[in-house]
Amino acid sequence: MLVAMGGESPTYRAGSQRTENHRGRHVGWPFSSGVTSANRVPHASFPDTFADAERLLDALMDRSRTADGVVLDTETISAPDGVHVIDIGAVLIRNMTPVFLYGQLIRPICDFSFSATLLSGITADMLDSQPTIDLVLPYLRESLHDLPVIGHNVAYDMGVLNREAERLGIPVLDNPTVDTMELASYRLPDVPSLSLQQIMSVLGIADREEHRALSDARQTFECLRRLSGMPGPRRIDAAEKRRLRSEATADRRRKATIFTKARYLDRSDVTPRNPQPNGPVLRSFDCGVNVNLTGDPEHQGILSRYGYDAWLWVAIRRGTIRTGSHAGEATCYVHLDGQEVGFLSAHQMMTHSGQLPADGTVMLAHIPNSSDDRNRHRWRLRIQLPEGDAENASDSDVP
After folding, report:
1. Contact of 343 with 334, CB cutoff 8 Å
2. Distance (Å, rounded) from C-alpha 375 to C-alpha 362?
3. Which terminus of the chain has a lower count of CB atoms within 10 Å, N or C?
4. pLDDT digits (tens, 9 = 90+) for 324-366
């Protein structure tokens, strides 16, 4: 058996969680892996521009013939007509050993949401050159044939793939399923959260959930391997519970912040209003950090010309603080339209040291549109850094 339940654990039933579009079932292990002509769907022809994607799918189909399971994960975005898949990851396994890794970005046929960028780092530009789901899903469906599909909250991933199948008018996935979230509830009954991130933390998997499909599929496999090897339920003491509860709360807050920011960005025009300076570009919306504007009144005039809620290109130059009690300490100077307008304080440099770009980087900046700023006729500037240590992100909750 793939998942051996030992000790006093209840009998484990794979695939007990369902969604309306998930018609999977639980059968014994191992499974038949034959593909019959009755369940084949004609494949769309891949344009030459997607030749690499077609070759990868051919390799997945070939290797799946000798696999006895697949760990699957998807990343999605929401649209008015429902959820759309933008990333698929699969780990083919045989005898509990990975034998093939598959990862493919998908260009959605709907407007892109910033939530995907803030959560996973996937950008609209990354998806523009990728195949659409109608090219990929028929191949994927045939490759998975009757393999058991393993996932963390696997009903969600099967459900979203089946909604895509229904849009395309092709048969849905009807595979048997194994849910590592359900398995974790038996093996780790005391954990405050059954999220993939928390289960990895409890199992000592020194990694962070990246919300990229292949990475999450690999992490799910490692959770499966460790959970299925446990002799029985593991109890968690009060101190570890407190730590895990704190981690779960921080993760919920981080995701709530991401979706709040995504809603703002989705309804905003984030096109920079000024010319882009020369230099390498680091485009991020993760973490807004206040720039200490220098006392030159002209700088307020420069910002006021762009107005509140404007997005701008700025250039970052490394240097040292010139005056005050922190003189001589490292800083980053911010240049707007070729003019130095401010710098990062010593505290900001220390707090965001792991996020700061290399010298000469071009970045996005934002002029906040707060009622306090408008009442005071004041203009501020916030540069947009990549995500850093969540514990130090107190200055980064809003753009």
Report:
1. yes
2. 31
3. N
4. 898 999 899 999 999 999 999 888 888 887 777 777 899 999 9
pTM of the model: 0.71
Tokens of 168: 């395309």
What angle is formed at CA 239 by the lines to CA 236 and CA 240, rounded to 5 degrees?
Answer: 45
- Helix, strand or coil, per DSSP, at residue 197: helix
- Distance separating alpha carbons of residues 151 and 161, to the nearest angstrom: 13
What CA–CA distance (Å, rounded) separates 101 from 133? 19
Other Cβ atoms closer than 10 A to 88: 23
Cα dihedral: 69, 160, 22, 180 (round 10): 50
CB under 8 Å to 162, separation ≥6 — which residues?
21, 22, 23, 172, 173
Crossing angle between the packed helical segments 154-168 and 133-144, to the nearest 10 degrees? 120
Best CA proximity match to 35, nearest among 120, 141, 151 = 141
DSSP for 105-161 reads E---SS---HHHHHHH---HHHHHTSPPHHHHHHHHHHHHTTPPEEETTHHHHHHHH
Question: b or e along 283-322 (b: 16 or more beta carbons within 10 Å of the residue's beta carbon)?
Answer: ebbbbbbbbbbeeeeebbebbeebeeebbbbbbbeeeebe
Place of tokens 């240049």: 335
Q: At what angle do helices 196-203 and 180-187 cross, to 10 degrees?
A: 50
Report pLDDT digits (tens) over 123-139. Answer: 888 899 999 999 999 99
Give strand ranges (E) for 155-250: 177-179
Query: Of the candidates 184, 182, 207, which has an alpha carbon nearest to the alpha carbon of residue 197?
Result: 207
Q: For residue 175, what are its two tokens? A: 């595979």
DSSP label of 39: G
Beta strands in the chain (DSSP E): 69-79, 82-94, 97-105, 149-151, 177-179, 281-282, 287-290, 292-293, 311-320, 330-336, 339-343, 362-366, 382-385
Crossing angle of helices 196-203 and 238-266, rounded to 10°: 150
